[in-house]
Structures are given as C-alpha cells and as structure tokens.
Amino acid sequence: MSTDQLKVIGAGFGRTGTESLKMALEQLGFGKCYHAFEILPEHLPEWKKLQRGEVPDYELLFKGFQSCTDFPAALYYKEFMKQYPNAKVVLTVRDPEKWYDSASKTIFRRLPNFMLVLIRLFGLFSMTARVFPDIHIQIGDLIREDVFKGRTNDREHTIAIFNAWTEEVKKTVPADRLLVFEVKDGWEPLCSFLGVPVPSTSFPHSNEGASFEKKIAKKILTDSDSKK
C-alpha cells in the first residue's frame, strides 16, 4: 500500500475555496486533485469504511490522484496524515459568517426534486448521471447529519462547529506540515509552503455560490463515460 501517493491533504470545509485550491494544486504540478466532484460509485464503500473508523482501500480511493480537498476528504485528514506521512496539509479558511452564507445556499441544500428527476432520466444515456443521485444523497447526508448533526439551519450552531474544526486542525497538525490558507492571498503563501515557483498566471477562482447548481448540471451533462 502506497504511503507517498498523496502529496497534499486539504483539511478545510467545503465552501472555503476548496475548488480553487484544487485548480491551483493541479496547475502547480501536484497531479490530479480529489474533490467532491471526483467521487465514483466504487468509492462510496471506502468512504463508509472511513466513516465507521475502518481502514479503506487507499489504492482504489486515490488511484490517479496526488492531492485531495473538499468534503468528504477533509473530514479524514488525520487518517490520511498517518497513511501519507510525507504529505503536507492545507487548511483553507474563510470568514465564518461569509462561509455560512455560502454553505447555506449550496452544500447544505439538497438538489431540487425536479433536478434529480432530470438527472435520473439523463442516466439512461450517461453513467455519470446514473450514479450521481446516490453519491449526492450519501455524501450530503454525511455532511449535514454527521458533521453538523442535522442542524444546518442553526447558524450559531453550525458556525461553532466550523470554528471548532479550524482550531482542531491547527492544534493537531505539526506546524511544519500545515498551511492555514485563504485563497484570496493568492499564490505566494501556497507556493512558499509547497516549495514550488510562483506561476505567472492569476490564482484560479472557481465555484461561486450563484453557479453551484449550474456547475453540477454542466458536469453531469459533459462528463464522458470514461469513469465507468
């Protein structure tokens, strides 16, 4: 079992710039980055194992990836640190109030029923669409129920969990393995931490809340069946 496959572990909650970090890591040469959009049906049992405190098939879960970020990966940064002792950890952070506003409009919401129906219909022609509803429901429940105890409508409660998570990661990860990072700070702190040159291009920014559902729909409609 590989212990050096992952080079970077993202420990920040979704909606803290995790997709921008994904794009940045890929641009910096750290290979393909595992993000919520990368989850495949065969990965679900491995996430279930992690949820139960069991050891997953890491070779299966992270095949083809050198980094990870976003939910659900961030929830298991401790397990990944043990499996990949040379990996560095990036904790993406954001103003808690702005984070909650964004999360409440995106990841805390279940997709509308009409959209799930359309996705299931499109599943007659696309493997991605066929498996998406199950993935969306299982991972969404993990976030809403396990992490936030079913109280995502409670702003104070949810922000308290967000803040506690940030402090836990800071206390858990050794200082030489951790970067606390706001994507608005751009390339310099990230590149310095990872020991790579600063690109001449602008830092990538993606997944604005207003386009969240459109992004999901576009991915389903454009993904090929190469992930079968």
Query: Strand share of the residues?
Result: 5-15%
Helix content: 40-55%
CATH architecture of the domain at 8-110 and 165-214: 3-Layer(aba) Sandwich
SSE ordering = EHEHHEHEHHHHEHH
The overall strand count is 5
Q: What integer is the average pLDDT? A: 86
What attributes does this structure have?
228 residues; alpha/beta; Rossmann fold; 47% helix; 8% strand
SSE order and pairing:
Blueprint (H helix, E strand, L loop, with lengths): L7 E3 L7 H10 L4 E3 L9 H8 L6 H4 L3 E4 L8 H7 L4 E5 L3 H10 L7 H10 L4 H21 L7 H18 L5 E4 L5 H8 L17 H11 L6
Parallel strand pairs: 1-3, 1-4, 2-3, 4-5
Helix pairs in contact: 5-8, 6-7
Can you give a write-up of this model?
This protein has about 230 residues and is α/β, with parallel strands linked by helices. It has a five-stranded parallel β-sheet with strand order 2-3-1-4-5, sandwiched between helices. It has a domain at about 10-110 and about 165-215: Rossmann fold (3-Layer(aba) Sandwich), CATH 3.40.50.300. The protein contains ten helices and five strands. The protein is globular. It has helices spanning about 20-25, 45-50, 60, 75-85, 95-105, 115-120, 125-145, 155-170, 185-195, 210-220; strands spanning about 10, 30-35, 65-70, 90, 180. Helix 5 (about 95-105) packs across helix 8 and helix 6 (about 115-120) runs antiparallel to helix 7 (about 125-145). Helix content is about 45%, strand content about 10%.
